[in-house]
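Reference record
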Amino acid sequence: MYHTREVTSQPAAAVAAAASCQPVRVARRSRSIQTVVTLDLTVPGLNSNGPRRELQDALGEAVRVYVVSTDRRHDCITLHVEVAGQTLDTVIGALAANLTQATLGRAKTISVRR
């Protein structure tokens, strides 16, 4: 009673050729690996504006500074500092020369893909 008819939009040869094709690979943009020095720094005082300016003067514009804690009892601030594109020796040397009252905490170098 019902009639079925197979409908194909492509000839059989085209379907066979499409099945044997290799997958298309899209070229990805290469990402560079950037070295970032991270360290904790404790400075005297309760205002972070002065140490931020001194860090930018010593290390340049590539420095990121975050306030980790403020200790009112001991009148000091702990900062987390990230510097891109410099070595650990360069960063510690610049800090020792420019922030004489700062105490360095944990310092390490990491590699980030960007």
